[in-house]
Amino acid sequence: MVSTSSSSSSRRWRWWPWLPLTCFFLSLLSVASWKAVAAAGTTVTSLPGFDGPLPFSLETGYVEVNETTVVNLFYYFVYSENDPDQDPLLVWLTGGPGCSSISGLAHEIGPFQFVAEWYNGREFPKLIYRPETWSKISNIIFVDSPVGAGFSYADTEEGSKSSDTKAVQELLIFLRKWLLDHPQFLQNRLYIGGDSYGGIIVPTLTLAIDESNYLGEKPHLNLKGYIAGNPVTDPQFDEDGKIPFLHGMGLISDELYKHAKETCRGKYSATSNAQCAHSIQAINDKITDISTSKQCTKDINMAHILEPICQEIYSPMSHNTVARDGMSRLMLESAAADDDDDLNKASYVLLKIWANDETVRANLGNSWEWKRCNYDINYNKVIHSTVEYHLMLMRKGYRSIIYSGDHDGTITFIGTQEWIRSMNLSIADDWRPWYVAGQVAGFTRSYASNNLTYATVKGAGHTAAEYKPKQCLKMFARWISGNSL
């Protein structure tokens, strides 16, 4: 583990503002029984819809993380296609909170994807291998967290309740139990990764692992760093970045932006006066966020401002999900017939059809009904900002990469860059383009002796790997090997 050489007393002093969170971690650790049900994995060699045996090694299973409330987290483990014994171990967390990790597996960084362009509504959804999978160079555990996401479940009402801190603690228990059952990966370099609301969980879990290691909990986890894509981080920075982003992208007029800037004084997330509130309302009236709009509109798709909102798309053009006109109508009809907002996206429609097929569920080793994002979970958002957590991790010497899709209007690159600047880190390598196949793939800057790398992904939305999988794989491969982008 990479850490500073400060004294024990100074280390405890740095932790005192987070003492309630630390006490919560320790109280749950004290009642956790490491002799409880270990990770019972099922080897999956084929999947319905995939032609032939899988060209990668896949394991699925449950890990019980709380005996009292009977909480079980479901996981998908993909072995590295390169050298599983030596390649890093990446834990990947999907956002929401409440979204299934199969989104990462099938839509972002995993080894397969759905093909929508031929689907006629009668045949079984087709899967193909994704060559841009991050499992080419790393082992990846995709975890359904918090409880209620994907196939994870609890047998008690108390167990079904969750929060940021509870989710982190359950993940810490999950990871220790999983590694006890897979001891061959204990020495692999460990990285925690995720996107969207994972921006809250990833740095918090990384800090919890560091503190647990410091306290001597077993097994020791070989933690090296973390990855955060399009990350939710702090409501002030996240929200305040949206108005300048929309203006810079030409989506609101100079006059409207100027009035908002003057009346709100750059603080758009908390309107301080009636004129500011009026300006923000005028801007919001022109924009519809996909997370709140249930009907097709002619407004802006905030997940990717260049893509239509009324289509089986707001999906990536690069995702092999471009459909014929008939397919487009089919997806819209499917979406209209279902209350799940996510069904506007063709590949998400196919995923729901696929994951709720009895043959698929039996193949994956479970029988629970699946929903891509379960927003009905009983979840309490108690961590409102992780900026200080990032700063603490930088001081401890952990490596990190934070990246943004530069066309993401939900968590904008402007807001993300602003909270990174607020940490006052020294710049190691200033703003410059980074390249894939001779073309500019985005722009990057590194801080704190190259411990923190920030990158934009050109042309990507929310989340970046969905829209630019080739570029994101190159970015990850360079960073994980210790090279600059």
From TrEMBL:
Enzyme class, UniProt record, top EC level: hydrolase
EC annotation from Swiss-Prot or TrEMBL: 3.4.16.6
Catalytic activity: Preferential release of a C-terminal arginine or lysine residue
Biological process, per Gene Ontology: proteolysis; secondary metabolic process
InterPro entries reported for this sequence: AB_hydrolase_fold, Peptidase_S10
Signal peptide (UniProt feature, chain positions): 1-39
Pfam families: Peptidase_S10 (PF00450)
Family: Belongs to the peptidase S10 family.
Record protein name field: carboxypeptidase D
Organism: Leersia perrieri
